[in-house]
Design goal:
Distance between the termini: 12 Å
Helix content: under 10%
CATH topology: Thrombin, subunit H
Largest sheet: 6 strands, antiparallel, barrel
Oligomer: single chain
Number of domains: 1
Radius of gyration: 13 Å
CATH superfamily: predicted glycosyltransferase like domains
Length: about 120
């Protein structure tokens, strides 16, 4: 089984792109935490974090110059979590993603094996 299959990552409805961008995640029940967005698509993203999140909790994600993104936690384990955006990203948001990339990364399509 691939990492993430248990958590439903392979049931995505939209293409995902690798980024590795710093972000801040806010949950109602805890203070804001620094995370990294590892991939993003119109319907959600994968985060790298230091503690698991509560599945089905509502969160707000702040990434670079994008408007705050509201989402639900779909799955979570020790160092990663998957979010579903509510509502999905508008098409124009993807125009801003390249400037969020770290110099050593590039925007590219994620295959199922590359969570």
């Amino acid at each position: 089984m691939l990492d993430g299959e248990f958590f439903g990552e392979n049931e995505r409805r939209a293409r995902r792109y690798k980024i590795d961008a710093p972000a801040v995640l806010e949950c109602r029940e805890s203070p804001p935490v620094n995370v990294a967005v590892l991939n993003v698509g119109a319907t959600g993203c994968r985060l790298r974090l230091t503690e698991p999140l509560r599945v089905a909790s509502s969160v707000t994600l702040s990434v670079g110059g994008l408007p705050q993104l509201h989402a639900l936690v779909c799955w979570s384990h020790k160092t990663a979590a998957g979010l579903a955006f509510d509502p999905p990203l508008a098409p124009g948001c993807f125009d801003k993603i390249p400037r969020l990339l770290r110099p050593e990364t590039s925007l590219r399509f994620c295959t199922t094996a590359e969570h």
